């Protein structure tokens, strides 16, 4: 739990009453929760969009949105699940995954595939939805660049783009180069040594998970009719892309904008199907215990994670 924005030191372990599900809610006994960059942002309250709903203090005291576990109880009106069902989903609205029990809207949950462990299932909802929507439209022979490709969303996106027949250039820090190559990236770039906006041929699609450059730098790396989509990054970069990107891109036959990711089972379920079929691999870098959540968040937030990081409660 935490009551103020800050680093991992503001978190504490505390006993609280088990919550009761309201109408349309499911009480889940959490088995595994994966850590997302959004958890780190909400902990720190930065970028500013991470403070939506709680400008001065956090609106949710328990972080953790991607969960997998067993249904403990249901509220009035819930018809799709019952006690004992194995479920998973992205609880970004209510959070609460770094706990033994979490309340989740029925609409946010799907039945966990029997072929996946709870830990594996917990890695998919948020990262999977981002990767699927971010890579949508990629095709054979196209050049795709993924910035921030060594983390959870990026590791899925590399594999999805390769399945589409695209040539993939993956960008991240030097510690992740070998990992990105092992996922199928045709070229890897260490952002500490090379600016991808000033090197190589232009791209048909750029998926940017950590935007921090100008709109015109991104326009420079796109082919005519190319597309740039960003999902995360600094507040100033996102504002510039949202406000200036569409105009600057349209003038030169390019599409530049912020990707509004649609959440829910309909948008992450297709990736789970690919994982079950063996067409996409799930890479869990490290597993932490509940009392090690501060270390897990720091590991992800400071850019150390290769693939996904999981907190295991089962």
Textual characterization of the structure:
The strands form two sheets. Strands 1, 2, 3, 4, 5, 12 and 13 form a seven-stranded mixed β-sheet that branches. Strands 8-7-6-9-10-11 form a six-stranded parallel β-sheet. The chain contains nine helices and 13 strands. The chain has helices at residues 37-44, 118-122, 125-135, 152-163, 177-182, 215-220, 235-250, 265-277, 293-301, and strands at 25-35, 66-74, 86-90, 101-105, 109-111, 143-147, 167-172, 187-190, 203-208, 222-230, 255-258, 284-288, 308-312. Helix 3 (125-135) packs across helix 4 (152-163). It folds into two domains: 8-123 and 283-312, Quinone Oxidoreductase, Chain A, domain 1, CATH 3.90.180.10; 127-258, Rossmann fold, CATH 3.40.50. It has 314 residues and is an alpha/beta fold. The longest helix is centred in the C-terminal third of the chain and has 16 residues, at 235-250. The protein starts with 24 loop residues before the first strand and ends with a strand.
Mean pLDDT: 96
Our estimate of the beta-strand percent is 15-25%
Helix vs. strand class: alpha/beta
Work out the helicity level: 25-40%
* The top level CATH class name of the largest domain: Alpha Beta
CATH fold annotation of the largest domain: Quinone Oxidoreductase, Chain A, domain 1
CA distance, first residue to last residue: 19 Å
Distinctive features:
314 residues, Rossmann fold, seven-stranded mixed β-sheet, 27% helix, alpha/beta, Quinone Oxidoreductase, Chain A, domain 1
Question: What's a quick, concise take on this entry?
Answer:
With 314 residues, the protein is of the alpha/beta class. It has helices at residues 37-44, 118-122, 125-135, 152-163, 177-182, 215-220, 235-250, 265-277, 293-301; strands at 25-35, 66-74, 86-90, 101-105, 109-111, 143-147, 167-172, 187-190, 203-208, 222-230, 255-258, 284-288, 308-312. The protein has two domains: 8-123 and 283-312, Quinone Oxidoreductase, Chain A, domain 1 (Alpha-Beta Complex), CATH 3.90.180; 127-258, Rossmann fold.
């Amino acid at each position: 739990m935490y009551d103020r924005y800050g680093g991992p030191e503001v978190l504490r372990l505390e006993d609280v009453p088990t919550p009761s599900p309201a109408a349309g809610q499911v009480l889940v006994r959490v088995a595994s929760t994966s850590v997302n960059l959004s958890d780190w942002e909400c902990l720190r309250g930065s970028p500013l969009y991470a403070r939506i709903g709680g400008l001065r203090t956090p609106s949710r005291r328990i972080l953790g949105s991607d969960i997998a576990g067993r249904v403990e109880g249901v509220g009035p009106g819930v018809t799709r699940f019952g006690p004992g069902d194995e479920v998973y989903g992205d609880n970004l609205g209510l959070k609460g995954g770094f706990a033994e029990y979490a309340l989740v809207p029925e609409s946010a949950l799907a039945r966990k595939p029997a072929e996946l462990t709870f830990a594996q299932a917990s890695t998919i909802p948020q990262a999977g939805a981002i990767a699927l929507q971010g890579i949508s439209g990629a095709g054979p022979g196209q050049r795709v660049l993924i910035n921030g490709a060594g983390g959870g969303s990026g590791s899925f996106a590399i594999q999805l783009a390769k399945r589409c027949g695209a040539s993939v250039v993956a960008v991240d820090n030097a510690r992740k180069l070998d990992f990105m190559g092992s996922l199928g990236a045709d070229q890897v770039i260490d952002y500490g040594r090379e600016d991808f906006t000033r090197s190589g041929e232009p791209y048909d699609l750029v998926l940017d998970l950590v935007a921090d450059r100008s709109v015109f730098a991104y326009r420079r790396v796109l082919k005519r009719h190319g597309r740039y989509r960003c999902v995360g990054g600094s507040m100033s970069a996102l504002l510039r892309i949202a406000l200036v990107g569409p105009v600057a891109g349209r003038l030169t036959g390019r599409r530049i904008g912020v990707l509004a990711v649609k959440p829910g089972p309909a948008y992450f379920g297709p990736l789970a199907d690919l994982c079950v079929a063996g067409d996409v691999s799930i890479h869990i870098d490290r597993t932490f215990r509940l009392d090690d959540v501060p270390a897990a968040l720091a590991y992800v937030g400071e850019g150390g994670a290769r693939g996904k990081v999981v907190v295991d409660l089962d």
